[in-house]
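TL;DR need C-alpha cells for one chain.
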Amino acid sequence: MTKATRPTDSEMEILNILWQKGPSTVREVHEILGENKDAGYTTTLKLMQIMFEKKLLKRDTGNKSHVYQAAVSQQQTQGQLLKRMIDNVFNGSASQLVMQALGNHKTDKKELDQIMEYLKEVEKKTKS
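>> reply
TL;DR here they are.
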C-alpha cells in the first residue's frame, strides 16, 4: 500500500462500513456515517469517488444507483497500517505496542483470555 493509496481516517470509516455491510450505495453508506458524524451527502459521494480512483473501492454501474464495495481486504489493510504504526511509532517493537494498548485500554477477562490463547499459539509455532 503506497502513501497515495493509504486510506485516510475518513476513508477508513467508509471501508469499515463496507467490510461490515457489504456492497452498498453511497446513500446507504452516508446514512450509517450520519449516525456518528455530521457529513454532507456530496462529501460522502466525493470521498467514495476518490476511493474508487485510488482503487480502494470497486464500483458496479449496472444499476441507476452505483453500488460500491471494498477492493481491499480488511485483514490486509489492518496489517499494513499496523506494521507501519509499529515501525514508525514504536520503533519496530510489537511488544511496546501491546503493552501500551493493554496499559491504556480497559481489557476485560474474556479479551485477556483470548490474548493469552493467541500468545500460546504463537509460542507453539516459534518452537516448531
